[in-house]
Every structure is written in structure tokens, then in C-alpha cells.
Amino acid sequence: MNIAHGIRNHGKPFFSLEFFPPKDVAQWPEFEQTVTRLKVLDPLYASVTYGAGGATQDNTLAITGRIQALGIETMAHVTCVGATRARIDAFLRELGSVGVHNVLALRGDPPRGQALDLHLSDFRHAIDLVRFVRQNYPGMGVAVAGYPAPHPESPSFREDRAHTLAKVRAGADFVVTQLFFDVREYFDLVERLRDKGVDVPIVPGVLPVQSLDSIRRLLAMCGANIPGKLYLALEEAHQRGGVQAVREMGLTFAVEQMRQLIDGGAPGIHLYTLNKADMCLQIAEASRAFMRG
Ligand code: FAD
Q1: pLDDT at 38
Q2: Cβ(41) to ligand 1 under 6 A?
Q3: What are phi and psi for residue 278, nearest 5 degrees?
């Protein structure tokens, strides 16, 4: 299935689920149990992240194929920074052979501590990968990343939105957003792109906060904003009741955020699962009224 067509034809709010491939093969059976438990969310699709440094690309391929075989339409993330055309081509061909026909085309980041020398790379930006896939794999569905708060390297909102627009015009079928906590950032992104004539689905990425440590790590990595009020409330919860209190607050916040997104016209919710089933199941239960249409 072309996922973008699936989104357009679905007609009611949906969940999609993002997983990362466990590095250790010994963890795969447990991981598959997690995915199987999450099938009750009836996800429209799942997506599997891709290690920019090369460490987990084989795992992405294997795990993407395994989730597809579990009966969930699956999209592989593909990063192009530092990759040759031949390597990307081989990866895309292998995806086809395990039944995967959708990719999230990303630039990726250089390994920590290394600078990006774009001039040495076959691909400079995600848009180059979108063009490559479109040209060489015309039957493949292509999504791209969008940023409610601009990407950390962008000098302005305007420039960042313009690059997202260019990726769509180059042939992307839909957009999946970076995590965010302020729904106004998402609606602003949607409005700017719609004003420019973009009509592809723009799926908001929601991260349920599971602990202070994990949110600190993720925010440091991706450059998303967290409202000061929310951060202070999470810290206060942590002091009062530790990880459990933070989880409860994270769950309540995520469900309210999702409600506002769906009420405001978002087509569905892309859940950053962090490979943990319990929180996602609780969220699905608490959001049943507005997610089941
Ligand atoms: P691009 O679209 O190329 O943008 C990168 C920067 O360059 C932005 O500042 C943009 O505004 C600017 N830019 C874009 N085009 C041009 C141009 N033509 N000229 C000048 N500037 C330009 N990383 C991983 O390693 N593995 C993953 O699996 C992964 N999954 C992700 C999933 C989602 C939903 C998101 C939002 C991000 C994910 N990332 C992943 C992180 C992503 O790789 C980084 O955010 C990366 O820094 C940018 O990738 P991009 O595809 O947005 O790049």
C-alpha cells in the first residue's frame, strides 16, 4: 500500500507507530511481542528508524521486513548523509525484496563530533534523496520530515518551511513531523504549507513523555522546544512522585495534545513509541473517544 493513499482513504483519525530497531538480535523476539501488543491500536502504518552512522542499517532492513510480515504496513526511514548512490540504491532494492514499499527520505546527521562536508556527499539534503527515489523507484511511497519548530540548522521559520515545501514539490507524498509540545507550532506549519498549495497529509509526531531523563536526551538531540511551564511541571512531578508521576503527567499531556490536534484537523497521530507498549496502550485507551472517529 502507498501509505499516503491509505491516509487519504482512511477517513477517520489513525495511529501510526514509530519504532527503532533493537541493536541486539537477542532482543528481537521481545520487540516483536511489543509490536504485536500494539496491533490493538490498529495502526495505519509503522515506521522504523535508520542509524545515520551505519551501525543499524541492516537492522532497519530486517526489522522493517519483520513488522511488514506481522501484517502492519511499514515504512523504512532512510538517511542519505555521507551515503553513495550505490549504497542507497542497494538498500532501496533490498526493501522491495522484503515487501516494503514506503520510505521516509531524510538527510540524517553526521556522527556526533564530526562536521558535515556536504560537498563530498552524493546527497546534500533530503530533497536529493526524494528526487533519487522518485526517479529510480517510481512505485515507492515517499514521506519527508517537517519541523513545527524549525530545524536547529535553519536561520528562520520561513527558510525552514520553504525547504519543506521544496521536498513536497520534489515529489514527497506526505510529511511526518518532528516531535513538538505546542500545537500552535504544528498548525502554523500546516497553514504555511497549505497557503503555498500543499495538499499532502501532514502527520503530527507526538512523543509521550516517559521520564525526565529521556525527554532531556531527546530534546538535546532533536532541537524541539518544550514550553517552560510544561518542563517546570514535569520537574515538580519528578520531585513529588518520581518517574511514575512524570509518566502520569506525560500521558495526560499527550492525550490533551492529541485531542487538540485531531479537533484542529490533523489526519492522525504518529506516536513515537520508544519501543514501549504500556504507555501507548494507555494513551489509546484514554483517547478512544476522539481517535476512533
Ligand atoms: P533536510 O530536509 O535536508 O534539512 C536539513 C536542514 O537543511 C534544515 O535546516 C533545512 O531547512 C535545510 N535545508 C534543506 N534543504 C536545503 C537546501 N536545498 N539548501 C539549504 N538548506 C536546506 N535521523 C536519523 O538519523 N534516523 C532516523 O531514522 C530519523 N528519523 C526521523 C524521523 C522524523 C519524523 C524526523 C522529523 C527526523 C528524523 N531524523 C532521523 C532526524 C533527521 O535526520 C535530522 O533532523 C536531520 O538533521 C535533518 O534531516 P531532514 O531530512 O529534515 O533534512
Answers
A1: 98
A2: no
A3: -55, -50
Cα of 115 vs its chain's centroid, Å: 24
Residue 77 Cβ inside 6 Å of ligand 1? The answer reads: yes
The answer, yes or no, to whether residue 53 has pLDDT greater than 70, is no
Give yes or no: 18 in active site: yes
Model-wide pTM > 0.85: yes
Quote the distance between the C-alpha of residue 202 and its chain's center: 11
The three three-digit cell numbers of residue 40, written as one number: 490493538
Q: CA-CA distance, 59 to 258, in Å (whole number)?
A: 31
Model confidence over 242-286: pLDDT tens digits? 999 999 999 999 999 999 999 999 999 999 999 999 999 999 999
C-alpha 169 chain-centroid distance: 20
Residue 46: is its pLDDT beyond 70? yes
Residues 70 and 148: their CA atoms lie apart, in Å, by 32
Contact 6, 101 (CB under 8 A): no
Looking from the CA of residue 167, the nearest atom of ligand 1 is 2
Give how far the C-alpha of residue 287 lies from the chain's centroid of Cα atoms, to the nearest Å: 20
